[in-house]
Amino acid sequence: MPAVQPHLDGTIPTPKIPAARRKAEDFESWLAEVWPYYIAAAATGETYTMYEIAERHRLPEPPDSHMWGRLTTLLREAGYHRPVGWTTSPRPTSHHSGLRTWTGTRAARQGRAA
To answer: How many domains does the chain have?
Structure first.
């Protein structure tokens, strides 16, 4: 266990959990929190991975890691993004596995998706 530096008054500081490591309580609240960031990414028309957006904005993790797939499906079905290719994952725990890349649709770039 790492050493903790107490405050000058002797109290122990509350541990800080980085936003990207925070885990959401339920799917609906997580979706409401992360959805606007992916809509904004799609509106740029640039190619991105879901991980890149999450890391850039320090977004929380979903309650279950499989919910990332549900998010990508919801965004695609709503007309915000479409798959454009593959890359290797920069996520440290993924061991460079294959990862889909996305870009915003014309409707997303014009602000008329969904």
So the answer is: 1
Q: Would 41 be classed as within a structural domain? A: yes
Residue 78, domain CATH: 1.10.10
Distance CA 99, CA 83 (A): 11
Residue holding tokens 């695609």? 76
- H-assigned helices in 1-114: 27-44, 50-56, 67-77, 106-109
Could you tell me the residue range of the domain that residue 73 belongs to? 22-109
- Taking the C-alpha atoms of residue 108 and residue 81, their distance in angstroms, rounded to an integer, is 7
| Region of residue 45 (phi > 0: left; psi between -120 and 50: alpha; otherwise: beta) | left
What would the pLDDT profile of 46-78 be if each residue is shown by its tens digit? 999 999 999 999 999 999 989 999 999 999 999
The reported pLDDT for the residue numbered 57 is 94
- Cβ(97)–Cβ(51) below 8 Å: no
Query: What pTM was estimated for this model as a whole?
Result: 0.77
